[in-house]
Predict the structure.
Amino acid sequence: MLLRIYMRTPSRLLASALLAIVVAALAPGAISQAEATGAAARPSPPARAAYSFLTGVGNEHASMFNNPLYKQLHTKIVRYIAPYDAAVRGYSLSLASAFIHDAEAQHEQVLVAFYHSEYTPTKLPSLTVYQRDVQKFVKLFPHVREYQSWDESNRGNEPGAFSSPSAVMAARYYQALLRVCKGCTVVGLDVLDAQFIGPTLQYISEFKREIGRLETVMPTVWGLHDYSDVNRLEGWRTRDIVRAFGRGQVWLTETGGIVKFGGSFPNVRGSGLARAAKVIRFTFALASAVPQVKRLYLYDWNGGTSSTRFDAGLTNVHEQPRPGYVVVCQALHATRCGVRIASN
């Protein structure tokens, strides 16, 4: 999923010292520099036996399941983003079918997150169309029992590219999915953090208010993408959003270290690879420190090329291991983590 670290107006006045820290965190190399100082000394992830959460990978490429590097991680969960209309679109359905089939062959539990159509990405479906299409998808994949009603629902609109639902509409999509997937685990809301999280907190509040108005079931599982927080080696955004969710589990449905994203997170001579590995290590420690976090999905497996705008791959474009992969491998106590690291 392409990350958007939005430059939003903060919801409360910040002290000038805090502003200085945030600005510094955006500078190229700032994360590596911060970690080298005493201020960035943070605990290492606990041993696997001490984890209070499951770890998996989010990805859209079925080839991942055939890679020995992936197989040795022995993960039990995986996440896939499917267009809400995948069941009625041949190409989208073929991709989803291949991924889910291969995941189930590896005995992985698939979390499917619905998203905009690949054919009409700027047009949000009516409630009737959404419910009809996702119901068809659910029937096609009876063994998939975990869903998200909309991926990154607070992401906003990008003219000519995609549209996102309002908090009110997101609540109604959630209710529709509950209706057609009886007995399923439905992640009620999936949000993206940002440098300034005021709008995210407001979105959550509006969603919960609409859930109350609809008199439907308040979510017991919430989804969060905390890229902005962990890639600044901070944790306050994650904690504030978790508090805003209230009761229930929190699944970090997308998280991990950014290798490259625009000018804020460059990959100059491999610096992004090392930085991303440090971020992943920090992410495990943060998830361990927040009791509500019960799952962590790292995004993603496949890295990009030098021209790719957003790259957070644990492997490169040829599925060769990067430093971030080694961090995950060691955290999950795989047997062969002493691999030859790719340089890109």
User: Anything to note?
Assistant: Confidence is low (pLDDT under 50) at residues 2-43, 45-49. The domain at 52-331 is CATH 3.20.20.80 (TIM Barrel). Residues 271-289 form the longest helix (19 residues).
